[in-house]
Hints:
Layout: H1 2-5, E1 14-17, H2 24-28, H3 38-41, H4 50-57, H5 68-78, H6 89-98, H7 107-112, E2 121-125, E3 151-155, H8 163-166
Parallel strand pairs: 1-2, 2-3
Helix pairs in contact: 4-5
Amino acid sequence: YAAATASKRLFQSLLLLDPVIFPRTMYEDADSAMFDLSFILRRKNQWSSVDDMISRLEKRDTFSRWPKDTLRDYCTYAIDENYKLLCAPEGEASIYQSGIQPDSNIYPLIEKSKFIHDIPIHIVRASLGESANPFDWSVTTPDLVKSFKRGRDTQLKNSRHLFPMEEPDI
């Protein structure tokens, strides 16, 4: 967002890791793009310790591919001193829901940008998939690259939306 709306060039280049930018049509009809966010709202919000959080998450498919040190860092910094999530499930759900509203449509900002078209932009996307788990596949529209004059698109094979944590050395 900052790169698209800036009054001066802020970046030499951009690397977008599976950005949650939907096809234009989803922003035009937000009612048809409603998500079932109940799985987020059911997330556990309180833990007894960092180790408690790790032991539960490492068994879940979403986190099973993460290196142990990455999972430990995630758990250590995701909770407060009382072992409660810093980003409550309600807050996370509202991020997803507001992200598809018409006023979240970034395409007009990209088109009007004075500087974003002058820099190389590399979009790295996770695999497209059919899994019921939205963290298993990319929601980034494959056409996003066409919005940038110097855009480049890479789709990783056998990767999920959380691939930066699964493969931190990539």
